[in-house]
Amino acid sequence: MIIVMSNVATEEQIESVIKRIEEKGLEASVSRGTERTVIGAIGDERSLDPELLESLPGVEQALHIVKPYKIVAREWHKEDTVIDIQGNLIGGKQIQIISGPCSVETPDQMEKSAKAVKAAGVRLMRGGAFKPRTSPYTFQGTGVEGLEMFRKAADKEGLPIVTELMDARQLDTFMKYKVDVIQIGTRSMQNFELLKEVGKVNVPVILKRGMSATISEWLMAAEYIAAGGNHNIIFCERGIRTFETYYRNVLDVTAIPVLKKETHLPVIVDPSHAGGKAWMVAALSRAAIAAGADGLLVEMHPNPCEAWCDADQAINPQELISLMGELRGIAKVIGREIL
Ligand code: PEP
Ligand code: MN
């Protein structure tokens, strides 16, 4: 860390900063310039809080020089991490598409969905049993019963399941139903207690980006999970809030190469919650794969007009088939593959 002292800082103030640094077990290297003094803190600077140092008299600015995140940072782990979900790899050469309805509704809807997922050549299935809804008066998900329906329908087609966890109290139930990937939704990205809990289990996690989260906040959220011991984390860009109201969110395509640079973990994109309309899904999916995403999370419903949740953004089974064809072509051009 670098601590820049104010140009009127006294010798006493400089000494007190040095003392703080040394108390934390770091070494202080003092550079006295003609204008001002700059102090370098050498050692594991993560134990130093820049805000605390900036509150000391005579300090103008304190700046970290290494990243505040560690386990998830590419700086510490150069190679891409490939996550194995029941034999389906994500983060390597292969691009994985995950598809299914927004929410688990009925056994029949789940059976049709699983068949459509399988028929399109998609290898992983999504579906929310516990739904984070803006209004408490709308459908809240089918809950544990939904998990049961989901597991049954997916097992019939041999598909691993991805579903959202909103409450750590449901974690044991998720284990009981052998949820293959735990999804942490945009509204929970900074629920640090929930992140700590999923950090303790040995199940891959999809961490969606908070709707107004910066890249750094998102990486720090992943670090919470990783710090608990669970390093199988997949980032999912799902659109961010901006001033634009034409579409539900703005797909931040820029986040894809930025995250690929900052972390060794896989990065996927949810084109459905980004655009919020079924007709935008194909275009946003193509953009995401072309920009380097390792996969997609796409909402598909056997009968979109009758979906209980997010009906206008669900594509139908036929659209999923044609989307897969297009994506295979793009994957090939960029030296990747969709099996
Ligand atoms: C979802 O994928 O079902 C969902 C609720 O998405 P998000 O958390 O991105 O809004
Ligand atoms: Mn949805």
From TrEMBL:
GO terms for biological process: aromatic amino acid family biosynthetic process. This is Phospho-2-dehydro-3-deoxyheptonate aldolase. Residues 1-66 form the DAHP synthase ferredoxin-like domain. InterPro entries: Aldolase_TIM, Class-I_DAHP_synthase, DAHP1/KDSA, DAHP_snth_FXD, DAHP_syn_2. The keyword Transferase applies. It comes from Candidatus Methylopumilus planktonicus. Coiled coil: none annotated. Residues 83-323 form the DAHP synthetase I/KDSA domain. It is an enzyme of class 2 (transferase). Keywords: Transferase. SUPFAM superfamilies: Aldolase (SSF51569). Its EC number is 2.5.1.54. It holds the Pfam family DAHP_synth_1. GO terms for molecular function: 3-deoxy-7-phosphoheptulonate synthase activity; aldehyde-lyase activity.
